Amino acid sequence: MMEQLYKSKHKKISVLDIFLYIFFTIITFLCIYPFYYLIINTISANDLSANGDIIFLPRQMHLENYKEVFKIPGLGNAAFISFTRTVLGTVLSVLASGFLGFMFTQDKMAGRKFLYRFTILTMYFSAGLIPWYITMNNLNLTNNFLAYIIPGMVSPFNIILVKTYVESTPKSLQEAAEIDGASILTVFRRIMIPLCKPILATVAIFSAVGNWNSFQDTLILVTDDKLYTLQYILYKYINQASSLANLIKSNAGSIGSIIGTAATEQTATSVRMTVSVIVVLPIMLVYPVFQRFFIKGIMIGSVKG
């Protein structure tokens, strides 16, 4: 027995094991390096960053890029708007997609197949940008915070995920609850929501990322600066700062010395990278919390059991 225990603790490493370790190490590096590259370039000398000289380690470190971004007028309010729309939009999207996905599995629902197929159809055919804007305008959703919430509540893709997941759960649970007198809402609230936590977490991640990154709806529907989202503010800042940086570069001899040293004055590259870090960082901090639900939800929700 001691010999077996010794062998189990000293298992031979095969050539395949070594290959897999090296392979997955490379894959991990390729996944992490782009974000690391962004960070080191935002805190390094901007002239070196613009020339592509920062590869692995930061050089001539400074925080001027972040200081300039945080000076943007209205940035705090825009961050609050983005945070609020992300939280509300995600919660309502999870509830709506979860309930609709559940209802599309109910044989007693009138017109279930037609409504489900019609929902799927909207994934492949869009009404177009102009009809969408006209509809939103007729609903008084221009310059309205609800324009960020209502259109994204129902996602055909999320409904498909939830429906497929619900179909993989034992029907006997719902039947037993209905025998005991439970209504559809009670079954959904007391049975399906606890059972569907993995797929609902997956839907929550998709919805949160979509709401957080969205700026096109602000660009088209909103002119009130009090309703600007963080992404739209940063989008405008990228355009303005990049134009200014290019102007400074083309007139470096006359006005470059007024703006500052070449190491700290902003370039189009430094602006884009700094904004990218600020936008991506919140998602990267939240994702690990939902990672185990996300992986399980994708695996189970993608294949009908």
UniProtKB/TrEMBL annotation:
Residue ranges annotated for the ABC transmembrane type-1 domain, each copy included: 79-290
Q: What name does this protein carry?
A: Putative aldouronate transport system permease protein
What superkingdom heads the lineage? Answer: Bacteria
The membrane spanning regions, by residue number, are: 20-39, 78-102, 114-134, 146-166, 271-290
Q: Where in the cell is it found?
A: Cell membrane
Q: Which PROSITE patterns match?
A: ABC_TM1 (PS50928)
Q: Which UniProt keywords apply?
A: Cell membrane, Membrane, Transmembrane, Transmembrane helix, Transport
Question: What processes in GO biological process is this protein linked to?
Answer: transmembrane transport
Its taxonomic path starts at: Bacteria, Bacillati, Bacillota, Clostridia, Lachnospirales
Task: List the GO cellular component terms.
Answer: plasma membrane
In the bilayer, the protein is annotated as: Multi-pass membrane protein
Task: Return the similarity comment.
Answer: Belongs to the binding-protein-dependent transport system permease family.
